[in-house]
Structures are given as C-alpha cells and as structure tokens.
Amino acid sequence: MCNFLSAIAFKNGDVFEASQYTDSHEHLIASLGLDDTKDLFIRNWVRVEFVPGNDVADVDKYTLRCDECESPAWWDGVSETVEKNLHRIVSKMVIRDERKCILGGCWIFAGARSNHVVSARIIAMLGSSQVNEMLGSSQVKTMRDSSQVNEMLDSSQVNEMLDSSQVNEMRGSSQVKTMWGSSQVNEMWGSSQVKTMRDSSQVNEMLGSSQVKTMLGSSQVNEMWGSSQVKTMWGSSQVKTMRDSSQVNEMWGSSQVNEMWGSSQVKTMRDSSQVNEMRGSSKSSRNPVSDNR
After folding, report:
1. Helix or strand or coil: residue 134?
2. Distance CA 58, CA 2 (A)
C-alpha cells in the first residue's frame, strides 16, 4: 500500500511526486511513461516513500525509504540528495498562518486557517486548524484535536475524524469514513456517508441516501431520511427518527431508535435495545437471548 509521501526517485537525485492527486506509485510510474518491466538493477529510477513520524507537521522526523525489494547500487550515493529534495517539498506543504483562499495543492494544516479551500488535498488538520468552506473535490485525510470544517460542498471528503474534530455541514456526496472520540457532524445531505462512529461521535441529521455502517459507544444520529441505513448499533448508540426505507440491521446493548417510518426495518434486537414507535410496513425481530460479545 502506498503511503504519504510517495515519489519516484531518479539516479541523478531528482524526484517526482504528485501528492495533490495521488499516493500511488503505479499512477506516478504510468504518468511518466516509465517501463516497470525492466530489471531493477538496470533502471535509473526507484519507488520511494518519505514517511512522517508521530507528528506529520514535523518534517525533520520524516524517514526516507526505498520502496523496492532491493536497492540498486547507485541508491546509497543519491539517497541524501533525494531526502533533501523531499524535505523541501513537504516543508512547503506545512502551513501555520491564515489564508483567505487555497486553490489546489497538497497541504498540512498545523494550526492554520483558511476561509475557502477549493479542489485541494489536506493530509492532516492539527491543533485548532479551521476551514470555513470546502469546495470542489477537496479532501481531508485526518482531522485531529479541535480541528474544524464549517461546511463541505460538492464531493468534499473527510477520511478520519479524531478527538473533538468537527464538521458542521456536509452536502452533495461528501463523506466521513471514520469518526473517533467526540467528533461531530451536525448535518449531512445527499448521499453523504459515515462508515464508522465510535465513542460519543454524533451526526445530528442525515438526508437522502446517507448511511452509517457502524455506531459504537454513545454515538448518536438524531434523524435519518430517505434510504438512510445503520447496519450495526452497539452500546448506548441512538437514532431518534428513521423515515422511508431506512434500516438498522442489528442493535446491541441499550441502543435505541425512537421512531421508524415507511418500510424501515430492524433485523435483530439484543439486550435492552429499543424501538419506541414503528409506522407503515416497518418491522423488527427481537432476539430474546442476550449474547456475550
């Protein structure tokens, strides 16, 4: 699996990376038209990764490695130059100030703030970093600490939210893959999706075909519309209202759904899980046996 920062290093010490678009070595190789069928020891290039330490904003702690089964004879002679070039590239990505608008590029927010981010890739938002609006196909890989995105439009995406990170509103096909700690999304529109919610993570409202695959701990969704779906609820997770063809596949512990409309369905209810009201053709199946997980 290719990680940030992936690059192609050449025998003369030059490097090629396209971190705004991809961390895939194979995409980089194809874009340059390189021949990957040649023997490693006669090629004039290798795959490399410049890997961050515990703090992705601390470029001095990054580690360079040749991402091949073996290193060619010329690698030791150019590795120092390659490392300096990649250090310079990543250092330019780290921003700590306030900017009105960021257009494209790959960035690491270390307490930085921006009013608008358009079609950009943010590797991490650290500390109290903040983006007021994300447009186009902008992407945030990780949000930590008290980082915040006020609004996400179009196909903007957050891959992971940790601690008390927050997104106030998501529209279109925006997506959050993982929410940890007390992370929160206030509203999700269109086909927005949260794959995993843990601990006290919360989504206040989900519309359209929004989906939550797993809710753990005291995670909560206040309202789900359209064909929204929760596959598994654990602990004291709660969904207040589900409408139309919304579905919960399994409920554990003291998980609760207050109201279900249309053809909403709960397949399995265990322990003290509860649905307060079901309307239309909604149905539930309770398992009388409390399983030990």
Report:
1. strand
2. 20
Question: Rg of the Cα trace of the chain?
Answer: 23
The two three-digit tokens of residue 235, written as one number: 């602990």
| Sequence-separated (6 or more) residues with CB below 8 Å from residue 267 | 247, 248, 249, 250, 284, 285
Pair type for strands 45-51 and 63-66: antiparallel
- Cα separations in angstroms, 73 against 10, 38, 81, 154: 13, 16, 15, 48
10-residue mean pLDDT profile of the chain (293 residues): values are 90 97 96 94 96 96 96 97 98 98 97 96 96 94 94 89 90 87 88 88 87 90 88 91 88 90 87 85 64 43
Q: Where are the domains of the chain?
A: 6-94, 95-286
115 in helix, strand or coil? strand
Alpha-carbon dihedral sign for residues 46, 52, 58, 62: negative
